[in-house]
Specification:
The complex is a heterodimer. Chain A is of the alpha/beta class. Chain A has 18 helices and 11 strands. Helix content of chain A is about 45%, strand content about 15%. In chain A, about 60% of the residues are buried. In chain B, helix 3 crosses helix 4. Classes of the chains: A alpha/beta, B alpha+beta.
Amino acid sequence: MANEVCLRTLDHDQPWSLEAYRAVGGYEVLKRVLQEKTAPDDIIAEVKKSNLRGRGGAGFPTGVKWGFINRSAPGDRYLVCNSDEGEPGTFKDRDILRYNPHQLIEGMIIAAYTIGAARGYNYIRGEFQEPYERFEAALEEARKEGFLGEDILGSGFDFQLHAHLGAGAYICGEETALLESIEGKKGQPRFKPPFPALFGLYGRPTIINNTESLASIPVILEKGGDWFKDLGVENSGGTKVFSISGNINNPGVFEIPMGTPFKDLLQMAGGMKDGRPIKAVIPGGSSAPVIPGAQMMELTMDYDAIQQAGSMLGSGAVIVLDDTNCMVRVLERMSYFYYEESCGQCTPCREGTGWLYRIVHRIEQGKGRQEDLELLDDITGKIAGRTICALGDAAAGPVQGMLKHFRDEFQYHIDRKRCLVSAGG
Amino acid sequence: MGFKMQPMTVPEPAPGKDQLFTPEIRAEIDRWIAKYPAEWKQSALMAALVAVQDADTDNNPGWLSQKDLDDVAHYLDLPPIAVYEVATFYSMYELKPVGRHKICVCTNVSCMACGSDEIVSHLEGKLGIKLGQTTEDGHYTLKEVECLGACGGAPMFQIGKQYYENLTPDRVDEILDGLE
């Protein structure tokens, strides 16, 4: 039960080629939809039935999002794919682009047909040269086959699809910052509402979905929403592409059913490196609060289970840390990340991320003050929920998680002015 | 902010665009312009900056000079401020000289857990520079970057457009020896 959806070409030679994609039934759903002129509402109903939730991290139901588009309103509409994969620990969309770009393209064409968009963009992070080249090559093949362009397969439906390259900014993974970036501006998030479905790219109605979400569409429509839903568990339909990294033997990307026990995923990833004890797991990208290793071993990988444990499934990026890691150092690095990547638009985030980093840094350096842990608690409360986008919350969450589960390590650093881990504690 | 939904533009397009850059760079920028609605040449700005940065337009391979930025503004009919805003916002644009090989080392959590400290100190020792510096001969720049989305191959770095994964000090030596 692995690699059944987004990575289904992986067993083939040159899994990224049109030939490999055809061998797994690729573009057949698109042909059927265009020939039968399937009603967009029927497609949306099927996607809703599948329980597919946005795979970029927020987990918003994809079918519901598509339903927000008013297809009878005049003027242009856009479809945008978010391949600006930058959440630390996440490397799944890179592999979808590298190994199965045609499935993303087919998913995007079907999505564009459903919402009535004549133009679409795939925003790929600027550093992803190899994935970008694979995507471009696949686009070229799809154009030659008549899957893109005007009057696709004689259906009367037109759709132009292009790649847009980022240039190094985590914030552009936020959907409205990404739209600003396609418009050739700084990637600073917009106020919502209005949501992109009403006022998106170039001010036009726009649907924006994650790479993995869109790449799941052809298989959902081929095998049915119920089939996909039943792969997973309640509230978490389908399979999920997990990226697992850190102190493990076989890090990588695993597409497995939602609800799979974490310990099974860890086993697939080869178990702990050198057989060391598992200390902590960041279950959904660095914005997801940390969970102690022992607790994580009892959890399943789905939205509800991880949320009940006080964290989030996020992008499905699992970072596994063994007992050689100092949690103060780990948090210092994560806090630096948010400080570095804050776009500077909202004061609580722009200033607050700097405060968080500087305080954790001084604790790490053995210069922490007794009041620092309370100060950190206080600052996170003053950032979270007070900014335009979720980057503020994302910066606060890891600090809150670390202080909840590993407060003693921070206290030790402050009291003894050295590290508990390197002291053998 | 997004509510002003007009592209930025200049009142009068300036003449002499055919004197800017090289025909190849102009063709590359035009290829990007064609992807977007006709009035949104601004959308091609990010790609235009990459094309100009990668080329040796102002005797400055790998980075963007003030003249480069102004030329891009001229070519896309944008006010210079629109170009400066973007060029200073995104981390892949270099506004100061960089070495022939820019080594971008990821030190984020997954790479850190897998030994990026050792990779950084090996590079610093080998090249005699710290993160953020360029060797005196102009061959190498060492840059610390945020997660590059290749955590399965941690620790990793990027040189030019190429990713190198599962690094060890020996592997780093091999890679650097293989560069021109």
